[in-house]
Design goal:
By secondary structure, the protein is an all-alpha fold.
């Protein structure tokens, strides 16, 4: 006779794996690097998390600096 034991776990279902919010943030980073950093999806996907976050922050800083330089340039014309 085979005895079947049912195991029940009392932890939340989100205990294992990544949250949907985290995954969405990663996809946003991948999209940003692909669109504005000219990275391929595979290159961006294979970056370690901290390095990918650094690249995203650095690109944002670069675009802000570029925007400020353009703003100064157009203000000097008029």
């Amino acid at each position: 006779m085979v005895r079947i034991t049912v195991l029940t776990f009392h932890s939340q279902p989100t205990f294992f794996g990544l949250s949907n919010k985290y995954i969405e943030d990663v996809y946003e980073q991948l999209f940003f690097l692909k669109q504005h950093g000219n990275w391929s999806f595979i290159e961006a996907y294979n970056l370690p998390n901290k390095l990918r976050e650094w690249w995203v922050k650095r690109l944002i800083q670069y675009f802000k600096e570029e925007k400020e330089a353009l703003k100064k340039q157009t203000n000097n014309r008029f």
